[in-house]
What we know:
- The structure is a single chain.
- This protein has three helices and no strands.
- Helix content is 89%, strand content 0%.
- By secondary structure, the chain is mainly alpha-helical.
- It has one domain (2-94).
- The model is unreliable at 16-23 (pLDDT under 50).
- It has helices at residues 2-39, 43-55, 61-94.
Amino acid sequence: MKKVRVIHWLGLFAPVLLLATSVRADGAADLKQAEGLYKAGKYGEAEQIYRKILQSKSGNPEMAYQAGRMLPRVYLVRQREIGSSERGLAVDNSL
């Protein structure tokens, strides 16, 4: 009787465990992709993926922490790029 109950419970929870593992794997892949984009200087694309990770309901606090830690860095770098391109335009306009 106990074996039947154990098998029954495993049958109920196995899909949930597999789904949770799949979501974590997808989130980890997204995090790696965002980090690669950040290192390659593709900050806009990295920002989109970090936002996606933060908005997902994966329930993985480590991924949310990593994305939340990197997102402000992406903002700062993008602001610097925008500022330097505006300064470059200002210099070009003064010629």
